[in-house]
Design brief:
With 226 residues, the chain is an alpha+beta fold. The protein is 28% helix and 21% strand.
Length: 226
């Protein structure tokens, strides 16, 4: 059995056995109900990944790092880039707000994301939890969203690396039809142009963003998941 799977199981099952925290903040039972009500399995998002995202969000919320804990965004980099693997979820209203494509870094892989880094110049995606910041307008990227990596050693260089959410024509179905996969970024999670602004306006200002992959080093070492 792979080591990452052993770490993954130890993370998921203790969490899934809980019901409610302080009486006001639902933990696992609510997350499972939300997952089922939103039919997330049909979109390709596994319950395990959803539960990990909610677990990290609750830790960020308890640490006072989120201004809006009702929204969580998940980029499931275990899925093919040909899949709509980005999910914007309203936990309060149990609603899937957006489900669309998201590109990964140039040196992270071709169709699949396989290699990750926190280093400047790596052109790789960085895994883990982020807190969204304010929108900006970049000279090359246009309307974009600053994101702050909060996991030391995994993504805390995000702002220094200028990792932002933005759009590009290579994150579209048209590109997939032409090349068999999405194009790739310098490390940013890149969205289709038509949903870029609506998504940014929804998730800006202190919401949780989770870039996931079953990477052994990350899964076993994340302080938000262990």
């Amino acid at each position: 059995m792979k080591v990452w799977f052993l770490c993954f199981v130890s993370l998921v099952f203790p969490f899934a056995s809980l019901s409610y925290g302080d009486g006001n903040v639902p933990v696992a039972k609510n997350s499972i109900d939300a997952y089922t009500l939103m039919n997330l399995a049909e979109t390709g998002l596994s319950r395990d990944v959803f539960d990990l995202a909610v677990k990290g969000l609750k830790k960020l919320e308890s640490d006072g790092l989120l201004q809006n804990p009702d929204i969580v965004t998940i980029a499931d980099y275990s899925q093919s880039s040909k899949k709509k693997r980005l999910y914007v979820i309203d936990l309060k209203n149990k609603s899937l707000l957006f489900n669309t494509y998201v590109a990964h870094g140039r040196n992270t892989g071709d169709e699949y994301a396989r290699f990750f880094s926190n280093k400047e110049g790596s052109l790789k995606s960085s895994l883990g939890f982020y807190v969204t910041d304010k929108p900006i307008v970049g000279s090359h990227t246009g309307f974009a969203l600053m994101i702050r990596g909060v996991e030391k050693g995994f993504n805390d260089n995000a702002m220094r690396r200028e990792i932002i959410i933005h759009s590009a024509d290579y994150a579209t179905e048209k590109f997939i039809r032409a090349y068999g996969r999405l194009g790739r970024s310098f490390g940013c999670p890149v969205l289709p142009p038509e949903v870029n602004k609506p998504i940014i306006e929804t998730i800006k200002g202190g919401t949780c963003l989770f870039l996931y992959n079953p990477d052994n080093d990350y899964i076993c070492s994340s302080t938000l998941l262990n």
